[in-house]
Design goal:
mainly beta, Lipocalin, globular, about 10% helix, 9-stranded antiparallel beta sheet, about 40% strand
Length: about 325
């Protein structure tokens, strides 16, 4: 099975170049798990789940999807994203402004860290914890103190801010450090430049999402990097987890500027890339004229961008 990804920037939004995202394997996933975070560490898989009174930290067998062990959070806590840092697992909570630090082997809470605002997604890039809060902002934090070192704003190919950044995965790619992120209530994963916040690539997983329930809670949410370009992905209350290949080999010069544009000399120096982009646009338009390349994204949320009342979008059931 294959789904598709689109690199952003080289061409216009409605003229994206699609490349295959190959599904390598499928295993079962606990349909009762309201997945908030997914993480691989040395071949082991850890998962966090949310909802008041139901939040857990779990170790999951990636070969079968079976839960090996779990620890439940206090009923007043709503579990969110997780990151493995050395011998510990750090888990965010939604509105408690507290990060729980677990011993990886015993699942006992070692200590807590504090932060302001909401906690959504978390990952560790080897030196900093990267955290999302549901906005377009990513904060880079000290893994011991949780102090913010810097922040970046996630922007798409034309400089528009991308809101609702959710579960995160830090990955060292062929072109440098990137963050892979879910967008809440959408069937796409973004590959984000950690320096600029620019979206480098977008992956459409709507085909897989459509196979895992049609409730507005059954959204894509869970990215765990296995190796190379292979990732485990799942969603809230999904019945399956998928090992997929997310292509990420490309030259960053393909990505158009978000805040400033190249000089005329820079454009001339990159004339081979310009010719390549023009060729891609031409091929796309030829295919479109033959009946392909319509505007429909096949994203099942396009028809119902928000079926949940605004007052309940972050409530007991519909929290990110």
């Amino acid at each position: 099975m294959s789904v598709f990804a689109s690199p952003l920037g080289a061409v216009a939004e409605d003229e994206k170049i699609e490349v295959e995202v190959v599904v390598i394997a499928e295993v079962s996933h606990d349909s009762e798990a309201f997945t908030q975070g997914l993480e691989m560490d040395g071949g082991r898989m850890f998962e966090s789940t949310g909802l008041f009174g139901e939040s857990t930290l779990r170790e999951v067998d990636p070969e079968s999807g079976e839960v090996i062990r779990f620890s439940s959070l206090e009923t007043s806590l709503f579990g969110e994203g997780i990151a493995v840092v050395g011998e510990n697992i750090i888990m965010l909570t939604w509105q408690n402004q507290t990060a729980l630090v677990f011993d990886k082997e015993t699942f006992s809470i070692v200590h807590n860290l504090s932060y302001d605002g909401e906690g959504w997604g978390l990952c560790f890039d080897g030196s900093s914890l990267v955290m999302s809060n549901g906005s377009s902002s990513l904060s880079f934090r000290d893994p011991e103190t949780f102090e913010i070192h810097r922040t970046v704003t996630v922007t798409d190919y034309s400089g528009n801010q991308v809101e609702m950044i959710n579960e995160l995965e830090c990955v060292t790619t062929p072109s440098g450090q990137s963050v892979f992120a879910n967008v809440w209530q959408e069937d796409r994963i973004l590959m984000i430049d950690t320096i600029t916040g620019n979206v480098l690539r977008e992956y459409d997983l709507s085909e897989l999402s459509s196979q895992n329930g049609d409730e507005h809670n059954n959204v894509l949410n869970g990215i765990a990097h296995k190796e190379s370009s292979e990732f485990w992905i799942t969603g809230k209350n999904w019945t399956s987890m998928y090992l997929v290949e997310l292509p990420m080999f490309f030259d960053r010069d393909e990505i158009s500027c978000n805040s400033s544009c190249p000089t005329e000399k820079g454009i001339l120096d990159n004339w081979p890339l310009l010719l390549f982009a023009l060729a891609c646009i031409t091929i796309f338009r030829i295919n479109a004229s033959k009946g392909g390349g319509g505007e429909d994204s096949n994203n099942r949320h396009d028809e119902q961008p928000s079926t949940t009342p605004a007052t309940q979008r972050r409530g007991l059931v519909d929290n990110e």
